[in-house]
């Protein structure tokens, strides 16, 4: 049986072939939060570099946002011990978020917008060609549902995206990896995982709801996550209501109904 690491590397390799994430000569800024996903991404990218016939380098960057008790020395020690080129940047966005967000509301949205702006600037300063974020398959699926259920948008997460100002390219090498595999790998490898609730913010209730919904859906259809991932890569613009897309795609009649066998094909399903 394939090891966890082999499974995850195969999925990174598949994402790379499909979406052109890592290229010869790249200098990747690997964004490290201290959570399981970004540690796994960093470790796996180093392993992946050993497997491929082209060359890329990386610098691990953590933004210490000033959360009380953030164990920045734990991150530094690990990065040094492992020999990763790294930068730890300190900007107290925590105070800003605490000041600006009304009591009882989640901090996450403002916190991540502030973080993004700072990380984009750091990437330019460091001459990085791309920024790698640790989002995985389950982040993508949750975002796809969140946007439909709460924001009226058919939109998930791009594996590779140019920022609006054109200065940065974001990549998500773990986008085909399952969260449970990433979590198990983080335990297996003993990464120094920092909890993400240091800010004391409320949970993002909508995301929690979507997670719960997925668990319920999975009870009836164990393939539901695979199907949602496949759907994100199998868009039929002619069968949507966006007037900007009319006329694109084939005319294959009505949408495939549940149980008619047309919803999934082996090619659409992304299997480990
Ligand atoms: N403080 C930070 N400094 C640098 N990069 C960050 C920081 N916070 C988040 N990131 C990057 O953004 C990604 C998504 O952040 P998010 O807070 O949603 O974390 P997550 O999905 O729990 O992942 P992780 O387990 O890596 O924390 C992270 O995987 C990481 O690449």
From TrEMBL:
Domain annotation tRNA(Ile)-lysidine/2-thiocytidine synthase N-terminal: ranges: 27-212
Record-listed E.C. numbers: 2.8.1.-
Transmembrane annotation, as ranges: none
Any one Pfam family match given in the protein's UniProt record, by short name: ATP_bind_3
Record key words, sorted: 4Fe-4S, ATP-binding, Cytoplasm, Iron, Iron-sulfur, Magnesium, Metal-binding, Nucleotide-binding, RNA-binding, Transferase, tRNA processing, tRNA-binding
Positions in coiled-coil regions: none
Keyword Cytoplasm: yes
Superkingdom assignment: Bacteria
Keyword ATP-binding: yes
GO molecular function: transferase activity
Cross-referenced CDD domains: TtcA-like
InterPro entries assigned: Rossmann-like_a/b/a_fold, TilS/TtcA_N, tRNA_Cyd_32_2_STrfase, tRNA_thiolation_TtcA_Ctu1
Entries under PANTHER family matching the protein: AMINOTRAN_5 DOMAIN-CONTAINING PROTEIN, SULFURTRANSFERASE-RELATED
Protein name (Swiss-Prot/TrEMBL): tRNA 2-thiocytidine(32) synthetase TtcA
Organism: Nannocystis punicea
């Amino acid at each position: 049986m394939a090891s966890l690491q082999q499974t995850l590397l195969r999925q990174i390799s598949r994402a790379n072939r499909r979406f052109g994430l890592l290229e010869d000569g790249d200098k990747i800024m690997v964004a490290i939060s201290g959570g399981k996903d970004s540690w796994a991404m960093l470790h796996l990218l180093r392993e992946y570099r050993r497997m491929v016939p082209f060359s890329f380098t990386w610098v691990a960057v953590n933004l210490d946002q000033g959360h009380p008790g953030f164990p920045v020395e734990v991150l530094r020690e690990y990065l040094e011990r492992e020999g990763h080129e790294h930068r730890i940047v300190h900007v107290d966005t925590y105070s800003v978020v605490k000041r600006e967000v009304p009591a009882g509301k989640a901090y996450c949205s403002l916190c991540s917008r502030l973080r993004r702006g700072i990380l984009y600037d750091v990437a330019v300063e460091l001459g990085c060609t791309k920024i790698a974020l640790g989002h995985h398959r389950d982040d993508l699926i949750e975002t796809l549902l969140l946007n439909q259920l709460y924001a009226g948008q058919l939109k998930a997460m791009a594996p590779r995206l140019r920022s609006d100002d054109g200065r940065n390219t974001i990549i998500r090498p773990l986008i085909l990896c399952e969260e449970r595999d990433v979590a198990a790998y983080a335990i297996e490898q003993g990464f120094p995982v920092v909890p993400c609730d240091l800010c004391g913010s409320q949970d993002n209730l909508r995301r929690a709801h979507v997670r719960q919904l997925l668990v319920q859906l999975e009870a009836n259809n164990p393939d539901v996550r695979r199907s949602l991932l496949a759907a994100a890569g199998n868009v039929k613009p002619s069968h949507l209501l966006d007037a900007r897309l009319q006329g694109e795609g084939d005319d294959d009649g009505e949408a495939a109904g549940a149980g008619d066998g047309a919803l999934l094909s082996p090619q659409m399903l992304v299997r480990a």
